[in-house]
Predict the 3D structure of the following.
Amino acid sequence: MGSAEMIDAASGVETGVDTRIEDRIKTRARELGFDLVGIATLGQVETAGHFDEWIAAGYAGEMGYLERGAEKRRDTRRPFEGVQSAIVVAMNYGGTQPPGPVARYARGDDYHDVMIDRLNELRRWIENEIGCAVHGKPYVDTGPILERDLARRAGLGWFGKNTNLINPELGSFFFLGELLLDLELRADDPFEMDRCGSCTRCLDACPTNAFVAPRVLDATRCISYQTIEQKGAIAETLREAIGEHLYGCDVCQDVCPWNVKFSRDATEPAFAAREVIAGKDARTLASDVLAMTQEEFSTAFRKSPVKRAKLAGLQRNARVVLEHFKARSNDSGAATG
Ligand code: SF4
Ligand code: SF4
């Protein structure tokens, strides 16, 4: 992974005296709770062409917001004038929790809020450390930045066939964030290897056959898109395969050997599962959701990623989950009848 650094909770933070500003920044980033940190060069984005083709093929579905800022997306020097470096961070949200009706990333607090605040804190710390003004912009899924591209350039991992960025010591259950700065920093080596090899577990395991090819996802078939992003009815042809997924899907990450071997518990308290979700099976949670008023939903999912689907979307999903259980009990009734 180049010279980008890894935080190991077991071995603790390095105790040596850091002399380079890059090393001191990484130490501070780790103290702020980031699990991976690397520094990237800015410039033309290698995967921007693939991204444009992906949009043109219609694989982004209703996610029109992804088309915005195409020029900025193609060149990481464009988001603001004078930008020179990107500090790329990752925060583990815990791939070791058991699977459940809500994807792991969405069980706790909204990662945007958690990470943006810390990236802003990191920028202020850098200003203080070097004693002059440093302009910067934090991104956490919040702008026209191809985050995985930048993360690979910063040495944090490679693009898996399941389209996630995979780190060889942490797997892929983490959020990415970037702090773009008008400060020149020495970049880490990019991650050049593809360590998927001949594996196809993620492609084979997808319940809705959403992969058109390795690293090409037809989001309109993906359970995450169907249960979170799209606003209409869930396609009839996908309902059975959606099964017990009330919000999002982790299947193509769960089966990845890098996650099986290297996932870790989340240490960030903000990502602990909320009471409304914790420990509930799909049938119980779907029934709870259907009984919720708008006020109860707003209270239960305040500052949670789940609020993105709104109550109407979550109740739509809950009906699909309960239909699945009904169909299953009808099938087993017919089999034993
Ligand atoms: S998140 Fe689920 S539905 Fe989407 S591609 Fe992965 S396995 Fe398939
Ligand atoms: S499951 Fe296999 S092919 Fe898919 S991302 Fe993981 S290593 Fe790569």
